[in-house]
Specification:
CATH architecture of the largest domain: 3-Layer(aba) Sandwich
Radius of gyration: 21 Å
Shape: elongated
Number of domains: 2
Structural class: alpha/beta
Helix content: 25-40%
Strand order of the largest sheet: 5-4-3-6-7
Family: Belongs to the peroxiredoxin family. Prx6 subfamily.
CATH class of the largest domain: Alpha Beta
Largest sheet: 5 strands, mixed
Number of strands: 9
Function: Thiol-specific peroxidase that catalyzes the reduction of hydrogen peroxide and organic hydroperoxides to water and alcohols, respectively. Plays a role in cell protection against oxidative stress by detoxifying peroxides.
Catalytic activity: a hydroperoxide + [thioredoxin]-dithiol = an alcohol + [thioredoxin]-disulfide + H2O
CATH superfamily of the largest domain: Glutaredoxin
Number of helices: 6
Subunit structure: Homodecamer. Pentamer of dimers that assemble into a ring structure.
CATH topology of the largest domain: Glutaredoxin
Keywords: Antioxidant, Cytoplasm, Disulfide bond, Oxidoreductase, Peroxidase, Redox-active center
Order of helices and strands: EEEHHEHEHEEHEHE
């Protein structure tokens, strides 16, 4: 009998619909569809009661208000059990004085982790690496970041990324390197010779036809 070679699951990419899920969390059962109409930052961590993960959860918790200002829902995940999650977030509150205000998915069967490609066998056979998925109000994946097990994330960079995406959507512009809210943005490059000629007739001091910055109004 002819053997059928196993297919590697297709991992989600930027621009793909976010894989739907329903899962048990520290805040009860949730579905991704519950958050349609708002932004979501879904992030995985390798394991509960680990030092780097604990620092990340405290950092996310301290910045939760900043995410809420941007209409962003934080959702954590690991392949630990619900009792483990509850014990860990309780320990963080009791010992470190930080309350974790967002849900943490208990993904013991790895159903969500597999859909999002959060387990990288080269790094660890069972633990999820540090992934970040930014999902927009239409439930489309807009950004993906992977971190190794031994380096914690920059929460400020994730907030900056959300700011960039939201600004780009609202004003049809792009965010240049190291951009922060209030700084100049980049206009889309011309798509025709006529557009190039029009751009060359304007003020391009310090830039050129393919790179034009501007201040946002309002």
């Amino acid at each position: 009998m002819e053997q059928v070679e196993a297919q590697t699951p297709t991992l989600p990419k930027i621009g793909d619909p976010a894989p739907q899920f329903t899962a048990k969390t520290t805040h009860g059962e949730i579905s991704l569809s519950d958050f349609e109409g708002q932004w979501v930052v879904l992030f995985s961590h390798p394991a509960d009661f680990t030092p780097v993960c604990s620092t990340e959860f405290m950092a996310f918790a301290r910045k939760n208000d900043e995410f809420e200002k941007r209409d962003v829902k934080l959702i954590g995940l690991s392949v630990d059990s619900l009792p483990s999650h509850l014990a860990w977030v309780t320990n963080i509150k009791e010992k470190m004085g930080v309350e974790v205000p967002f849900p943490v998915i208990a993904d013991l069967n790895t159903a969500v982790s597999q859909k999002y490609g959060m387990i990288h066998p080269g790094a660890n056979e069972t633990a999820t690496v540090r992934t970040v998925f930014v999902i927009d109000p239409k439930q489309t994946i807009r950004a993906i970041i992977y971190y190794p097990l031994n380096v914690g994330r920059s929460i400020d960079e994730i907030i900056r990324l959300v700011d960039g995406l939201q600004t780009a959507d609202k004003f049809s512009v792009a965010a240049p390197a190291d951009w922060k809210p209030g700084e100049q943005v980049v206009e889309p490059a011309p798509a025709s010779v006529e557009g190039v000629n029009q751009r060359l007739q304007g003020d391009l001091t310090g830039t050129d036809w393919y790179l034009k910055k501007k201040n946002l109004e309002g």
